[in-house]
């Protein structure tokens, strides 16, 4: 089962490698991992998308909590939550493809960020599945390159992770 | 306010922490620190012969005293040589602080001379580590390091110190922090009351209970509580390899060690119990055997200070996160206050079953007038030392025989590498114990393979006058490997025979010690008595033992605990 785990950790050199190292050393799966500072400059927030059965997810959370630099861990899958990811995709677009890309971007409520006579850069945001759907829809149009941020997540409602 | 250099601050911090001995080895990156150490008397330094030796000495010191062991080594090869000892301490949750030198801050990352990313290399085998980048952070970081190493589930902490921040020319005001604030680290101490009540209910409902206790009891200094608790219940108790001494082995309720080389009665008790009470033990694979066959009929209570130890390998029914001693106290209080007692009739019946298993005498071994049985040496060692010595071991068959035939009545006396199984641990660990307790009897039970992994520390023993006794069960084999090859590889003894062994007697003498060769069963006891009379000499006892003796019982890999190979 797919889980989105959020954690607050000390914004210190090496903290990221402790988390990444934990996942590789213990053989846990990482689908994506994002990290950036928060409104509190001493804290970073990390979002990890992983997969595993209940027992593995429980171990992952315990092992993350055990890291000295980790302040708080939450499996946001447990409660109502919002998930967002951003995709930047550069598509080859000449001739008829130009309209097709334009139309698809519109359907997915994306934005076109860069245009040349042979390409478009499109930005799509949404849950990961929506980004997947866009990539699927693009079909035969050649992808020159693409980058995804990995998922971010927050719980719904007025409570949240803070210290 | 005083003004001190980084090197001086380092030394003052150790003094403030009450450190009496540092085990180490100098080099370029730590010269400022050594210069500061040299100019004071309070913190003594033991110069080892290899940095791995320093880590095992500090580890032995920590296991025997319960205090934090301290190591100081230089950058690059000094630090990498220490890694095995750090990993050894980490696997067995031993409190240790290891200081490594590092190249000057402005050179970090440039492949400078003797540069290695110490924090990176050790990250997976420490409880935590730090790289200090500013002289003003030294004191606070050292304070944190000792705090983290010694609280919660203990473990090694590494502190990497670049050379420039210990520069004697740069002096800053010094004040040692009084306490530590770490918002991200709050080890749980008290167990949850509701869970404790549930556990008591389950424990008292048992008809066929087993207490399975481990290193956490020793680490948590809770053997007194465990002993009272166990006697109050009159339940059978087994210890893991790491838990030996946590409950007096001479007590009738003790059924011996469990697991791969555990007793028949302990393993059968585990297999057939209806309530398993795990205390400070972590369901290691050498204990559980095949997980699918583990304790098939048991409800399980598990007390551990580390939530990650709970339900990691085996799903438990009543988890309690907390300090062993506190949790046991709470449980005993409930039982006393509410006047609740176990089911005496059921427990009596259970004991008759256990006694029947015990009657098999699984630990009996053959006798020979010609060749020395290794088990016999250990039994005589127990007799000659009144069962009260500190025993360290290396890794292999001799380690198992020491565990099986030297019953411990007190904690902290049994010192061996269980989790990592590090050959080369025994001798330096013994020296660390002797450094802590100069008047105690300390013996290292070792093998012909293992002893050669850190034999150079015989020289350290001479320099610092650490007269331990080395009990070498010399079978001319990497015996544990040979045993597996006999059982599981049709006797193809690939590289397990030790050819060209040195003359250990001469070797001991060359290092300035006493060597003894013992090859007749009739001489074993006399030789031991003679050696232990030489109070102020290190005696290396080379016992030529039965080469092909095996360790029994044995639960083969993949089997359940009830599927032991008996003699
Ligand atoms: C050749 C060889 C053969 C071996 N054969 C066996 C064998 O037959 N049987 C056997 O038992 N082992 C055997 N071992 C050892 C085995 O590998 C493990 O090291 C050992 O079983 C672990 O012991 P433990 O469960 O007591 O855990 P430890 O490693 O001692 O861990 C202690 C546990 O207690 C917890 N803890 C620590 N402090 C506290 C506290 N204050 N309060 C509460 N909890 C605390 C920790 O979180 C941890 O979970 C063998 C090793 C070797 C090298
Ligand atoms: C550093 C290290 N290398 C390899 C091993 C694997 N190993 C485990 S026991 C053993 C044999 C030990 O031989 P010896 O010290 O003679 O003890 P014996 O089993 O003969 O009593 C070996 C090689 C280990 N545990 N540690
Ligand atoms: Mg041997």
Kindly describe this structure:
The complex is a heterodimer of chains A (163) and B (567). Chain A has helices spanning 15-25, 54-66, 96-107, 128-138, and strands at residues 2-10, 32-37, 43-51, 70-75, 81-92, 111-115, 119-126, 143-148, 152-155. Chain A is of the alpha+beta class and 163 residues long. In chain A, strands 5, 6, 7, 8 and 9 form a 5-stranded antiparallel β-sheet that branches. Chain A is elongated and about 55 Å long. Chain B contains 20 helices and 20 strands. Chain B has helices spanning 6-16, 31-38, 51-65, 77-91, 118-122, 138-150, 193-204, 215-219, 223-233, 264-272, 285-288, 324-337, 344-358, 374-384, 397-405, 426-436, 457-463, 479-488, 504-510, 524-533; strands at residues 2-5, 21-24, 44-47, 69-73, 96-102, 128-131, 156-162, 171-174, 209-213, 237-239, 254-257, 275-279, 299-304, 318-321, 390-393, 414-415, 442-447, 469-474, 514-518, 539-544. The complex binds flavin-adenine dinucleotide, thiamine diphosphate (TPP) and magnesium ion (MG). Magnesium ion (MG) binds next to loops of chain B. Magnesium ion is lined by residues 396, 447-449, 475, 477-479 of chain B.
Strand order of the largest sheet of chain B: 3-2-4-5-7-6
| Biggest beta sheet summary of chain A | 5 strands, antiparallel
Sheet having the most strands of chain B: 6 strands, parallel
Shape of chain A: elongated
Unreliable residue stretches of chain A: none
Protein chain pair with the most extensive contact, residues per chain: A-B, 20 and 18 residues
How large is the radius of gyration of chain A? 18 Å
Chain oligomer state: heterodimer
The portion of residues forming beta strands of chain A comes to 35-45%
Number of E-type strands of chain A: 9
How many helices of chain B does DSSP assign? 20
The share of residues in extended strands of chain B comes to 15-25%
In DSSP terms (H or I, runs of 4 or more residues), the helix count of chain A works out at 4
Small molecules held by this entry: flavin-adenine dinucleotide, thiamine diphosphate, magnesium ion
Series of H and E elements of chain A: EHEEHEEHEEHEE
